[in-house]
Design a protein that fits this description.
It is a single chain. The chain starts with 17 loop residues before the first strand and ends with a strand. The chain has 252 residues and is an alpha+beta fold. Helix content is 18%, strand content 35%. The chain contains 4 helices and 15 strands. The model has no long low-confidence stretch (mean pLDDT 94). Strand 10 and strand 11 form a beta hairpin. Strands 1-4-3-2-5-6 form a 6-stranded mixed beta sheet, covered by helices on one side. A 4-stranded antiparallel beta sheet has the order 8-14-9-12, covered by helices on one side. A 3-stranded antiparallel beta sheet has the order 11-10-13, with no helix packed on it. The relative contact order is 0.17. It is globular.
Length: 252
């Protein structure tokens, strides 16, 4: 979505903020270089679903002048630990700079309200385009290209529900803690912490599986080709804590 006015300026990053993948964090905001700021949390499924696009934009447009900045702002207790964030950045193969916003300082500066959220600033650090939640990937990439005066085919959708104009059906609302019961969604995830195993729909059933939990984060439990009506049976094993059960959209 285009900014309503052209005089909203990017807040400065706090000087004591911890950074990854940035040798000179004091020069993150650079005159003449557009900047994409993405708020995310490795424990949020929708952040992980957006990550392939953010990483690809870094790879595709860094050479043309784009700065991609991930701001990791925790929404769950396990993602507040700095080492857990560092481990997640390494595990996920993130190459662009990441600010570890453990105290939500940057979050408050932006008056941000959810995950994921992305803000695209022009070469004068003025807000040019923004989007809250999943989706609008082609729109964001076209805005990036406009700022850089670069023209190429945008990224293909990672999933069918990401395609421009895709008709999505409303999914079941996210649930705190472990959930078993009926649902409607394109996919089911769980936010897990600890070490052990989790059985989904009996583990050995036709649509079941057993997950090994080795680190905190968001784990996909069931992934469907389109919006599906189903029943979830989630069994949390010893040593594992389920903080939330989350549902992602699917093609209607």
């Amino acid at each position: 979505m285009r900014a309503p006015v052209d005089n909203i300026v990017a807040p400065l990053f706090p000087t004591k903020l911890t950074w990854m993948n940035a040798s000179r964090p004091q020069s993150i905001i650079q005159q003449g270089r557009p900047m994409l700021v993405e708020f995310w949390d490795f424990c949020r499924p929708n952040s992980l679903r957006t990550l392939p696009y953010v990483s690809a934009w870094h790879e595709r447009y860094a050479g043309a002048g784009l700065r991609v900045i991930g701001v990791h702002s925790p929404g769950f207790a396990p993602s507040r630990e700095e080492q857990a964030v560092r481990d997640a950045v390494a595990r996920l193969g993130i190459a662009h700079p990441v600010a570890i916003d453990g105290e939500l300082e940057v979050w408050r500066e932006y008056e941000n309200e959810g995950w994921p959220a992305r803000y695209l600033f022009d070469g004068h650090a003025r807000l040019f385009d923004y989007h809250f939640g999943e989706g609008a990937y082609t729109e964001t990439e076209l805005a990036i290209q406009e700022l850089l005066d670069v023209h190429r085919e945008p990224l293909a959708p990672v999933r069918p529900e990401d395609a421009p104009g895709a008709l999505l059906a409303p999914q079941t609302e996210d649930q705190q803690g472990p959930y078993s019961g009926p649902y409607e969604a394109g996919g089911v995830w769980a936010v897990l912490d600890g070490a052990g195993t989790v059985a989904v729909n009996g583990g050995e059933a036709a649509d079941g599986r057993e997950l090994t939990v080795a680190h905190p984060g968001a784990y996909p439990l069931l992934e469907h080709d389109r919006h599906t009506v189903g029943v979830l049976d989630l069994q949390i094993g010893p040593g594992v804590t389920c903080l939330a059960t989350c549902f992602t959209p699917g093609i209607a």
